[in-house]
Write a structure and sequence with these properties.
The chain has 480 residues and is of the alpha+beta class. It has three domains: 157 residues, FAD/NAD(P)-binding domain (3-Layer(bba) Sandwich); 158 residues, 2-Layer Sandwich (D-Amino Acid Oxidase, Chain A, domain 2); 101 residues, Orthogonal Bundle (Arc Repressor Mutant, subunit A), CATH 1.10.10. 31% of the residues lie in helices and 23% in strands. It is built from twelve helices and 24 strands. The strands form five sheets. Strands 6, 7, 8, 14, 15, 16, 17, 18 and 19 form a nine-stranded mixed beta sheet that branches. Helix 1 runs parallel beside helix 8. The longest helix has 20 residues. It is globular and about 60 Å long.
Length: 480
C-alpha cells in the first residue's frame, strides 16, 4: 500500500513528487513512457514566462508568477541550467499597439516585477537584429529560459534521492475507489494507494472523468518548432515573442540554453493525442513569420535547420489550470489542463498541491530531506586543472563519443548510472545531449548503444530509442 501515487512523470508530476518527498510517505510515480520527460514536457523551447499573459485572478496567473520565482531560485539548488535574459513581446502593426497596454496591465495585476513598455528606439538598441518595422515592445525582465529536459530530470532525480519510486512503461488503465483507498489497474499489475495525484497531461481528463461527475475535456493543441544551428544562437539575446492570439502566446524565438536558435510554436487543435508529426505547411509558416516580421534584412537559410519537432499542449476547454482535490473523491488530487505556461508553473503547482496533500493526510515532515542535487559534469566546460584531475580518476572522460556536442563516455556512463538513469538512446540524449548536435546522432549512435548495452547488461539488439518496441536493431547479420 502506497501513501501517494502520482500518474505522470512530466515536469508537473516530477515537481509534485519532489515537494511530496519533503514528507515521510511512501510515494510512487507511474509513467506510461520509458523515462521522465517523455511527453509534452520535453517538446518546447524552455521559456520560463514572467506571467503577464494569463488573465488576472486565474489559477494559471497565480501559478505562473510564483513558478517563475521558484524556477529561478531552484536553479542553483537543483543545478539545472538557466539564463535570465528577459522577454519581449513585439508589436509590428501600429494598429495593435494597444494590445501591449492590455498585457502590461495584466502583468501589473498579476504581480510581475519590473515589467515595462519600450518604444522603438529602445527595443532596437537592445535587439538590433529585430525588424525595423517594430513599433514597441513589452519587456519582462524576470523571464528566462532553461533546458526543459534537464529541468524536469533535476526535479525527478531530487525526488528519487529523497525516496520517491518511479515505475516506467506502466500505463494506468482504470482507477477505482475500494473502501478507504484507491485501486489503480495498470499494464504491469495493480497498485493500491491511499491518495492519487493525476498529473497525466493530455490524458488527465480521462482519469478526472472516472472520479468526478463534473466532466472536463482536454484537446491536444499542437505546436511545431524549428531548431537552427548554433551560429544563429547569437541572433537575439532575449526571448522574442509576437503579440499573442486566441490560440496561445504566439510564435516566439530565442537562443536555447545550449546556443542554438529555436522558432515556434505554431498552434492548432487536433484530435490525436499522439499526433506529434511535423508538417511542411506549418514549418514554412514559421520561417515566413521570422523572415517577414521579426528579423531585419536577414533570411534564414533552410540548410541551417538541424531538426524540426512538434509537441501537444493539454488545452482544457476552460483555459485554466485545474489544481484541486476532487470534491466527490477524497484524496484524489489533480493538476489537469496544464498547458503553457506549465513548464514555468510546475514548481508552484508542486508546492501548492504537496502542501494541500500533506495537510489533508497529516503527513509528517521528512527531516532527512536533501534539497540539493548535482547535474552530470560537463567535461568540456571544466577548467584545465579540473579536467586533468578528473581524467586521472576516470579516464573515460577523455573519450569523446558525440563530436558535435563534445560529450564524453564518462558523461554518458553517469547519465545511465544516476538516480532515475537513462535506459534508452533518448534517455541519454535528454540528460547529456549525445545525438542532439548538427548530425543528429549520425556518428555517435552506435557508440552510445554500445555503452548502454554494457552498462545495463543488455544485448545490443535490446537497446531502444525510447522504450517499448522502438528497437534500433532487429538482429545480427550472421543470424539472417
Amino acid at each position: 500500500m502506497y501513501d501517494v501515487m502520482i500518474i505522470g512523470a512530466g515536469i508537473t508530476g516530477c515537481a509534485i513528487a519532489r515537494e511530496l518527498s519533503r514528507y515521510k510517505a511512501k510515494i510512487c510515480v507511474l509513467e506510461k513512457g520509458d523515462d521522465v520527460c517523455s511527453g509534452t514536457s520535453k517538446v518546447n523551447g524552455g521559456a520560463l514566462h514572467a506571467g503577464y499573459d494569463p488573465k488576472p485572478g486565474t489559477m494559471m496567473a497565480k501559478m505562473n508568477v510564483r513558478g517563475n520565482q521558484l524556477a529561478n531560485e531552484l536553479a542553483e539548488v537543483l543545478d539545472y541550467p538557466i539564463r535570465r535574459t528577459g522577454a519581449m513581446v513585439v508589436c509590428i502593426n501600429p494598429d495593435e499597439r494597444g494590445k501591449l497596454d492590455v498585457l502590461y496591465e495584466q502583468g501589473i495585476k498579476n504581480g510581475v516585477p519590473g515589467i515595462r513598455i519600450l518604444e522603438k528606439d529602445e527595443v532596437l538598441a537592445m535587439e538590433p537584429n529585430l525588424s525595423e518595422n517594430v513599433v514597441a515592445a513589452l519587456f519582462a525582465p524576470t523571464a528566462s529560459y532553461t533546458c526543459p529536459m534537464q529541468y524536469t530530470i533535476a526535479f525527478a532525480e531530487s525526488a528519487a534521492i529523497n525516496g520517491v519510486e518511479y515505475r516506467f512503461e506502466t500505463k494506468v488503465t482504470k482507477i477505482s475507489k475500494v473502501g478507504d483507498h484507491y485501486l489503480l489497474e495498470t499494464s504491469k499489475g495493480n497498485f493500491e494507494t491511499k491518495a492519487v495525484v493525476n498529473a497525466a497531461g493530455l490524458y488527465a481528463d480521462e482519469f478526472h472523468n472516472m472520479m468526478s461527475p463534473d466532466k472536463i475535456h482536454i484537446t491536444p493543441r499542437k505546436g511545431e518548432y524549428i531548431l537552427l544551428d548554433k551560429p544563429w544562437g547569437q541572433l537575439f539575446s532575449a526571448t522574442i515573442m509576437v503579440l499573442p492570439g486566441k490560440m496561445g502566446k504566439g510564435v516566439l524565438t530565442a537562443p536555447t540554453i545550449h546556443g542554438n536558435l529555436y522558432i515556434g510554436p505554431t498552434s492548432y487543435d487536433i484530435e490525436d493525442k499522439e499526433g506529434v508529426n511535423t508538417t511542411q505547411e506549418y514549418l514554412d509558416k514559421l520561417l515566413y513569420e521570422m523572415d517577414h516580421h521579426l528579423i531585419n534584412n536577414v533570411k534564414l537559410p533552410k540548410k541551417d535547420i538541424i531538426t524540426s519537432f512538434a509537441g501537444l499542449r493539454a488545452h482544457e476547454d476552460r483555459h485554466d489550470f485545474i489544481v484541486q482535490e476532487i470534491p466527490e473523491a477524497p484524496l484524489f488530487f489533480e493538476a489537469a489542463g496544464i498547458e503553457s505556461p506549465g513548464l514555468t508553473s510546475a514548481p508552484a503547482i508542486g508546492e501548492y498541491l504537496a502542501g494541500m496533500i500533506g495537510e489533508k493526510m497529516h503527513l509528517e515532515e521528512n527531516k532527512d530531506f536533501i534539497p540539493e542535487r548535482k547535474n552530470v559534469v560537463k567535461f568540456i566546460n571544466l577548467p584545465a586543472e579540473e579536467q586533468k584531475k578528473l581524467l586521472r580518476e576516470r579516464p573515460e572522460y577523455g573519450q569523446v563519443i558525440c563530436r558535435c556536442e563534445k560529450i564524453t563516455e564518462g558523461e554518458i556512463i553517469d547519465a545511465i548510472r544516476r538516480p532515475v538513469g537513462a535506459t534508452s538512446l533518448d534517455g541519454v540524449k535528454r540528460r547529456v545531449r549525445a545525438g542532439m548536435g548538427r548530425c543528429q546522432g549520425g556518428f555517435c549512435t552506435p557508440k552510445v548503444m554500445e555503452i548502454l548495452a554494457r552498462e545495463t547488461g543488455r544485448d545490443m539488439t535490446e537497446i531502444t530509442k525510447k522504450g517499448g518496441n522502438s528497437r534500433m536493431l532487429i538482429g545480427r547479420v550472421k543470424e539472417f
